[in-house]
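dumping this here before i forget
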Amino acid sequence: MPTPLSEIIATERLALRPLTDSSTFDRSVTWVHNSDLNDPTPFVSEGQLLLTTGRQFVDTADPTAEPVAEPAAEADFVGYVARLVSAGVAAIGFGTEVITHGVPAGLVAACATAGLPLFEVPYRIPFIAISRLVADNEAEQARAGFDRALAAQNDIARAAVGKGRLSSAAISAAEHLDCRVWIFDADGELVNEPHRDSHTRRSLDAAPDIRRSVTDLLGRARRARVADDAADEHRVVQTLGSTGRLCGAIAWARDTEFGALDRSVMTVLAALAEVSLEQTENLRVGHRAILEQLFQLLKDGRVDSVRRAVRVAGIELPADRFAVAALDLSETSASVRDVLERRAARSDSRIFAVADGRHLLVLIDAKQLAAERRFFAASDLTVGLSAEVGWPELTVAITQAVRSLEASPPATVTEFASLVGESFFGLLASSSVADIAHARLASVIESAEGIGLLRFAQVWLRHNGQWDPAARELGIHRHGLKSRMQRLSELTNLSLDTFQGRAELWAMLAAIDLGETGS
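structure:
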């Protein structure tokens, strides 16, 4: 780590005497090298302090000779200094009374002209003392840096298990590194409140280019860490999770570049964020079966009890008015289901996503309905959407959503209101018809045999009551289908040999969702 040249000069025990303007000493030294070569540039690097006794400027080659008053007349001080400046040498320390009496005036003039700091090292001060000062300072800075990094890591870990958890850990990291931190979930949505440091008034929101980088990296579905520097800011974006199963990303930004110790602190927060997000994902998947059971309680009208229960999982049920969206579970990819469930689990969301038989149902608060419509449309999802209802009409809304889904073209959101306006079929999902259908078929729906017979009837009626094509689709003999329809006729007290009986059964099947009565 660099040592300020001014600190070296100010060290009293070294008794160093500046020979050029003090303004030139405002720089840092990375290391110390001593050489009496006329061209030491092959052996020095940028930022180094060069110590010399000036042997290259005199004629004598006898190391035991007395110091000379002046160097050789042909000494090229200007060329010597120019070579050092081009190599990036930070300063020259000239040891006097070894080869020359004092510092050659030509060297002082050349350094002053070139703006290269020059100072005198007294005879009694060995060059090793200056080298040791810089080495000790570097070691001290390294120790201090390690101590700061360790303290930062400890603070971040403590914050992560405290009340604020991941958000508090991110704030702690931002304060220690004097930067801004954003943590994103697998959908690229922000999951923490970005920390505003004391030196910037920049927006707390993630800059558009940071969001683009996060979206791009998450879209690749691979572990990655990239530097995404802007003209006035250094940025690092890193994905979290394993390749093919990313759980999020983390982004950092500040005015100065991140060093090795900074990156060690960043790694700690990234690891904690990854563990936290993966745990959230595992809990979300693990809660599915519980939410499905709670949904049955919702249908029974136990809204307050379910509301309290799902809050434990960080989910808020819709308020008094909501709509139900239905998706075909068999045609909905796992990633889409994951996205919908994550959207439901966000703190500012009033959405409830749950599997119900053959459908994935999403209960959407009325205030969020417009946003979710846009999301469905932008994602090219095939969705059936009910009218807005209250909790007492939940079952009706489910039926409306399912009927709308069945009538929906691919990659289209079909609303129940439009279905009613376009077709009498939509009216069959109205509350009165659905209630009557449930009541009439209650004894049939109670048994697995009855549900199976109703499913056979759906296929048979879809084929206009024709036995052969319906039997072929069902994979049974037509006589077997006939015997099943005879059994259903007895259970429902409907004459399925007549148009009226078939029409009544068709209307009742259209008004209810068999998916909600069994799987």
